[in-house]
Amino acid sequence: MGLDTVEFILDIEAEYRISIPDSDAEGLGILEELAKYIANKTNKAQYKDKPDAVMETLVTLLSTRYEIPIEQIKPNSHLIRNLGLD
Prior knowledge:
Largest sheet: none
Oligomer: single chain
């Protein structure tokens, strides 16, 4: 896991008030899987059991902070292979 990916995970942990163990993070490379994981783990009402709402905020985060074009961000995008996080 590269620096961008670690920073992204830290951003997620802060936004959703969750902790993602390294062992889990390594298996969450696909954006849709990550959104489902977050929706199941968070206690924030606007995101709990709502992977679509989580996906919206992930897309915003990736496009604003990491400058990834929105049209490139798809549910089946891999964080490293497709979106270029290292």
